[in-house]
Amino acid sequence: xxxxxxxxxxxxxxxxxxxxxxxxxxxxxxxxxxxxxxxxxxxxxxxxxxxxxxxxxxxxxxxxxxxxxxxxxxxxxxxxxxxxxxxxxxxxxxxxxxxxxxxxxxxxxxxxxxxxxxxxxxxxxxxxxxxxxxxxxxxxxxxxxxxxxxxxxxxxxxxxxxxxxxxxxxxxxxxxxxxxxxxxxxxxxxxxxxxxxxxxxxxxxxxxxxxxxxxxxxxxxxxxxxxxxxxxxxxxxxxxxxxxxxxxxxxxxxxxxxxxxxxxxxxxxxxxxxxxxxxxxxxxxxxxxxxxxxxxxxxxxxxxxxxxxxxxxxxxxxxxxxxxxxxxxxxxxxxxxxxxxxxxxxxxxxxxxxxxxxxxxxxxxxxxxxxxxxxxxxxxxxxxxxxxxxxxxxxxxxxxxxxxxxxxxxxxxxxxxxxxxxxxxxxxxxxxxxxxxxxxxxxxxxxxxxxxxxxxxxxxxxxxxxxxxxxxxxxxxxxxxxxxxxxxxxxxxxxxxxxxxxxxxxxxxxxxxxxxxxxxxxxxxxxxxxxxxxxxxxxxxxxxxxxxxxxxxxxxxxxxxxxxxxxxxxxxxxxxxxxxxxxxxxxxxxxxxxxxxxxxxxxxxxxxxxxxxxxxxxxxxxxxxxxxxxxxxxxxxxxx
Length: 640
Prior knowledge:
With 640 residues, this protein is an alpha/beta fold. The strands form 3 sheets. The chain has a 9-stranded mixed beta sheet with strand order 5-4-1-9-10-11-12-13-14, sandwiched between helices. Strands 15-21-20-19-16-17-18 form a 7-stranded mixed beta sheet, sandwiched between helices.
């Protein structure tokens, strides 16, 4: 979805009037700082000192917050609160969001405002303290709510019906009366998102997650079980066929499936490199979906817009966040989509081109082969193994940078927690320019907080530290090469040079593009004897890192040569080049190389390459003749 279309959607949303019924909650956040703790004189118990605290609308209140962030014409609140301090704070915050709270009814007895107290110690959430669990909503309150819902169905463009709290609907008559209203106003948009009653309400649109949609199809799934994408699609279609109202199924990083009378739409999830907090993402999704539908936006575009909005929210930590139009526009600028999430996590699903070691991740690519005129290659791990082991250099650099003076003394539990985060970061950023990895390192150092702010280095200084360690390793290998103790073939992936020559024989213009510094890439390619094969040029990171990226190289090739996408092939063992090749419409070939032995498959690389959009996976270039035959469709039938 391009940014002009998003701007158009935001403009249309600004005219929408929307009402929200639901369980209105107040989320309370207390930041505990143990340095202020003391032993209570009265009880003899250790106190917990709160250094700061803040409160935000939760439950249906967070739906209202998300709606408010997108600036519709009107928001009406429908629900119940108690006559207590939490209720008064919640009412005030909802009004501050621009919502009409005249239908937020106070029940005097047997009802405490739902509130969830979340205590955070060293960034970790302690057991939550909940208020309102034993509420019993009266029939009198139900009647007031139902009257308000009917008025909203008459006066507003859409109603969100949001139920999350166990026991919040305790009168069967409420469900019966609500269904009568939904039938009476069946032409109106009612978006249902109910944790416990999705199967009880009729004549509604539906927003559900993959487990909820399975349950509606009579399939019970354990909390740790991953539902195959094909099954989610089957369950969603069955529910739509039964209700004949649009259905939207969220599947976390796998994105959103949308179902309506025009078909089924798959919206890919987004690959996000930052730390994530998925709390509230569903509220963002239902808000964006409903606003879009009420504005006349088709279901597929509504789902795509909501997917972008949720990607904004999950990057906001320790709060039930919202997504503004400006933030959605920003993240929509060439987002990194996740492809084939199921296949990425389950190698047992792999399908291979007959008589080869080539995994076919996207069968549709077979129809696009035979037209390659230009090729872009990553260097390290794709052609060269000269820098094999760079991760083992970067990891300790990051660990020492994050832990600072505590590197040698910190307890093993904390050390391993930081180490796990570092490994995950390196895994996610493989293939991008080193300077961007160091930019991420600065954020990690600041996030963990072991190094005083005035001692945190900038990304260029961290890169210099890393490069010093890396080049010490590389230079030792170069010295052995120059001394004849090792040969060029000891640092080249199996069959790679033969494959390059075969491409050259077919008139393919080749480019080498690496996240490594440009002068180092050129020098290493010359030392290994294949620099002259890259007649398109050899490119690498520059001091002004904004002037180089693999994306820029690929876009320039396409523009300068007026290419169709399938005339370009991109080869690499990192997600960056694979993702950019896929984004440009080219043929993306992932290399799951085992850099240590220079041939064979490294299973650790497979998931990230599949998720980045690799259409074809090869372990190395040892079967280069078969690879050439496949890519150029020469005298071979691989369809059988």
